[in-house]
Automatic annotation (TrEMBL):
Homology family: Belongs to the CDP-alcohol phosphatidyltransferase class-I family.
Name of the protein this chain belongs to: CDP-diacylglycerol--glycerol-3-phosphate 3-phosphatidyltransferase
Localization per Swiss-Prot or TrEMBL: Cell membrane
E.C. number(s) listed in UniProt: 2.7.8.5
Organism encoding this protein: Peptostreptococcus anaerobius 653-L
Topological type in the membrane: Multi-pass membrane protein
Segments crossing the lipid bilayer: 71-96, 152-171
Amino acid sequence: MNLPNKLTVLRICMVPLFVLCMYLPISSKYIIAMIIFALASITDMLDGKIARARNLVTDFGKFMDPLADKLLVIAALTSMIEVNLVPAWIVIIIVARELAVSIMRAIAAAEGKVIAAGSSGKLKTVTQMFAIIFLLLGAHMGPGVFKTIGGVLTYIAAILTLYSGYEYFYANRKLFSDM
């Protein structure tokens, strides 16, 4: 397994650690969870850069990297609903889009095709990750600029989620032409 794929697997392994931290009975749980989430997010940036720079792009990475992102973001957002850090309706939009795109990728894979992440999907993921980081900082620090920035980024992420979902389905509409 090459280094980018190891970073992807590491990100997946950090998901349960993040969730565990969200439920710790200590006052610093949000800052600890934010640090874990930020480190996991950095592995997302690193694995792609390393894979492209060293020509280590694999089908495993094309499939598992977006899946790792989805697991991380969905785990974070669903954990944050319970403590009122993010509205449930936004999480529903994000989860629905992620499931729909994952199903589309599975259909493509059954036909021997790999659908890599597009630029709007990458922007959506980055925005979601920054929203989560700022919301967790805001939860730790109390009302203020971090919470406001996190809230604004959450709404932007919801819009980008809808747009990138539309873009994926439109670009790959031929997958469904025989149905």
